[in-house]
Design brief:
This protein is an all-alpha fold. The protein has five helices and no strands. It has one domain.
Amino acid sequence: MGLFEKVVSHLDLMSRMMNRTGAAQRLHAAGEIESGIRSAMARCSGCTDEKACSEWLAHAPQDSAPPAFCRNSAFFTRLTAGREHA
């Protein structure tokens, strides 16, 4: 897989993970659009668990807590912590 394909693949996985965990809806409210996404993408691009991520995304219900293996787990958890009160 070339660099461009890897970046696109990770961007897709991260986007799907953010939607599945509910983090995408809270990103704007938390004021972390640019810096948060940039940092999250850097963490995601270094991940070597693309297969585990894809499998988790295929089976996890909507609004699931992010999996422990996700390098953005703490970021997504922090974003979604207040969703019940939003």
